[in-house]
Write a structure and sequence with these properties.
7% of the residues lie in helices and 40% in strands. It has three helices and 24 strands. Strand 20 and strand 21 form a beta hairpin.
């Protein structure tokens, strides 16, 4: 399948496409804040994937954080700690873990909450994550319904990151576009979204192949669907590495379902020693990381690769069991995925 990325020339209004098509043109989404058009003239109606998308009103700034609301859905982004998403909730129930879960940790561990973004592979920067991308304050601009955050470049990799957030109230979808910008990089990098959720429930996704040999987290592959029952994770840290098959993953927590969609990635496009989908279970603290990655690319100096992810949070339909291996659950999630695209 096509890998969703493009080159964007920094400091200019143009974009350098690779194999440009109608679909590639739509990747840009709502106009960038750096575009010459007056944001006030853009309006709230945008065209994405050939259909009208009704953007919600602009996010509000509350106690230093940007808050998006769509009915009972709330998304909170904190520019002071790496543009981290600290809340994605339905009717007040946050699917992401908070700092209290790792408050007793040492070193960088207290940062292990919410949803963040790194470049892949980890071997390029070791540990802890690059401060500029993961936890340092980011510059924020709001234009209409779009929030844009920009980081400084990482000291090790030479990449900076721009994050753009917007919501589609008609579909109850949050979209995040990440751009990895080559400031001084000499090695390729892949985009990597890391979302931390409670250590309970299960994860599933369409898989193109069995888990990779380096995986230490138990899983099963049934009829093209990978299942990870978090209750079966070992007492020490464990992780799954696997190639996805349809560009989505789902996490079920009690009666809540957190769905992510993204462009499906061929296995040979992943970063070295990494995978399109990775699930990490912390052995000591009560959190799980549900992660997905994009294509491993070296953009030319002064250019960027962009990668788009969409989120939805819903309750299971009445009468549908939250059960590992449920074909009914898979069919329902696939229907939700189709409506997100």
């Amino acid at each position: 399948m096509r890998v969703g990325w493009l080159f964007v020339a920094l400091g200019g209004a143009g974009a350098l496409g690779c194999g440009a098509s109608d679909e590639d043109a739509r990747v840009a989404g709502p106009a960038s804040l750096s575009d010459e058009a007056d944001p006030a003239q853009q309006g709230d109606d945008q065209v994405v994937s050939g259909e009208a998308m009704q953007l919600t009103p602009e996010p509000t700034l509350e106690a230093g954080r940007y808050v998006f609301r769509m009915g009972d859905i709330e998304l909170v982004v904190d520019p002071a700690i790496g543009g981290r998403i600290t809340r994605f909730s339905l009717a007040g129930e946050n699917i992401l873990t908070g700092p209290e879960v790792v408050a007793g940790g040492e070193g960088s561990l207290p940062n292990m909450y919410g949803s963040t973004f790194w470049t892949s592979p980890q071997s390029a920067w070791g540990w802890p994550p690059e401060v500029a991308l993961d936890s340092a304050a980011q510059r924020a601009i709001v234009a209409g319904a779009v929030l844009e955050l920009a980081s400084d470049p990482g000291e090790t990799t030479g990449y900076s990151v721009t994050k753009r957030f917007w919501t589609d109230a008609a579909r109850d979808v949050v979209t995040i576009e990440y751009s990895i910008e080559n400031q001084s990089a000499s090695l390729p990098a892949a985009p990597w979204e890391i979302s931390r959720v409670p250590k309970e429930g299960f994860v599933f996704f369409a898989a193109a192949a069995p888990a990779l040999p380096q995986s230490t987290l138990p899983s099963s592959l049934v009829d093209g669907i990978a299942w990870i029952d978090i209750a079966l994770a070992p007492s020490e840290d464990s992780k799954l590495f696997q190639d996805g098959g349809e560009g989505w993953l789902a996490y079920v927590y009690r009666d809540l379902v957190f769905i992510k969609t993204f462009d499906d990635l061929p296995a040979n496009a992943a970063a070295p020693e990494e995978a399109e989908i990775e699930i990490f279970v912390n052995g000591k603290y009560d959190y799980v990381e549900i992660e997905q990655q994009g294509a491993y690319v070296l953009p030319p100096a002064g250019s960027a690769t962009s990668w788009r992810v969409s989120w939805r949070l819903e309750r299971l339909p009445a009468g549908m069991a939250a059960r590992v291996g449920s074909a009914e659950l898979v069919a329902w999630v696939r229907s939700r995925v189709a409506s997100m695209r």
